[in-house]
Design brief:
Blueprint lengths: L1 H30 L8 E10 L5 E12 L3 E3 L1 H11 L2 H23 L4 E6 L1 H4 L4 H12 L6 E5 L1 H4 L4 H12 L3 E7 L5 H7 L4 E4 L1 H6 L4 H16 L3 E4 L5 H9 L4 E2 L10 H5 L7
Parallel strand pairs: 2-4, 4-5, 5-6, 6-7, 7-8, 8-9
Antiparallel strand pairs: 1-2, 1-9, 2-3
Helix pairs in contact: 1-2, 3-5
This protein binds ligand C2E and magnesium ion (MG) (3 copies).
Protein name: EAL domain-containing protein
Length: 278
């Protein structure tokens, strides 16, 4: 009995492992050349001021549609793009697209709207990163202080000295640095102490619980107070209900982002968005 169960358990994991490996290989093959085949698109999710509802900018989010695989989530393909090094070219594509859309968006509304772009760990090992970003800003004709780069702890974990140099160089250019998914990592506080961050993005998992879990509410309250004490502004991620937004307002949160305020949309729709409060 036990033996049979053991064997079944073994083959269950074995099958699952095989499935995972072949899915990975399939994705890896498909993602090579996806850029050339123009299968990527950047979508945009607005960020608003909590106390007025005014739109202040947007976050660029990458989408991949492959004819054979369909829509693949960035949560699945970004790690593969990382490991294969393809993220260097893909990341440049996202930045170039996002800045060109930002330039049009600003011109249309005559306002210094902002754009947030996610950076992944591998991009930090590229010695040309700072140059590439500087060139992209010049080419788009966008001021450095309208660009914000979102960094998760994964970037910082390796602790190499070039990370500090790179972040400082970006900061000196006037680019804003934001710590993404705050609260989910291992040593966010240590990173806040070491690196020149300007913005704290509170992870969706905390925001989701603020109206129902008093612990989540207290943690978010403390995170906001701490951020303000360090002269950082705070963005709440994943705001889905009016109650959450209302509570964030009472906690002095600066900015919010989430399905309540706008789902990620295509560039064309972003450009014609009504910027006035909802
Ligand atoms: P992230 O940077 O934390 O982005 C926020 C994610 O939450 C996005 O998922 C967004 O669509 C989703 N979201 C926004 N509002 C809500 C909400 O109200 N409710 C819920 N349930 N979800 C919401 P997405 O687009 O699937 O991206 C997932 C992650 O993939 C991103 O997390 C980011 O880490 C990564 N990613 C996306 N685009 C890029 C990129 O261009 N470069 C890099 N390096 N990473 C990217
Ligand atoms: Mg982000
Ligand atoms: Mg995030
Ligand atoms: Mg998140």
């Amino acid at each position: 009995q036990a033996k049979a169960l053991g064997r079944n358990t073994y083959s269950y994991f074995n099958e699952k492992m095989n499935r995972d490996v072949s899915r990975r290989l399939e994705l890896e093959q498909a993602i090579r050349g996806a850029l050339q085949r123009q299968e990527f698109e950047v979508v945009y999710q607005v960020q608003v001021k909590v106390n007025s509802g005014e739109i202040i900018g947007a976050e660029a989010l990458l989408r991949w549609y492959n004819p054979k695989l369909g829509q693949v989530s960035p949560v699945e393909f970004i790690p593969i793009a990382e490991q294969t090094g393809l993220i260097i070219d893909i990341g440049q594509f996202v930045l170039t697209q996002a800045l060109s859309v930002l330039a049009s968006w600003q011109q249309r509304h005559h306002r210094a709207l902002k754009m947030s772009v996610n950076l992944s760990p591998r991009q930090f090992r590229d010695i040309k990163l700072v140059d590439m970003i500087e060139q992209a800003l010049i080419q788009a004709g966008v001021a450095a202080n309208c660009l914000e780069l979102e960094i998760t702890e994964g970037v910082l974990m390796s602790g190499h000295s070039y990370i500090k140099k790179t972040l400082s160089a970006l900061s000196v250019l006037g680019i804003y640095l934001s710590m993404d998914d705050f609260g989910t990592g291992y040593s966010s506080l240590n990173y806040l102490r070491q690196y020149p961050f300007d913005v704290l993005k509170i992870d969706r998992s905390f925001v989701q619980g603020i109206t129902t879990e008093s612990t989540d509410r207290k943690l978010v309250n403390a995170a906001i107070a701490m951020a303000h004490g360090l002269n950082l502004t705070v963005v709440a991620e994943g705001v889905e209900t009016q109650e959450q937004l209302h509570l964030l307002k009472s906690l002095n949160c600066d900015f919010a982002q989430g399905y309540l305020l706008g789902k990620p949309c295509r560039a064309k729709q972003l450009l014609v968005l009504e910027l006035m409060p909802l």
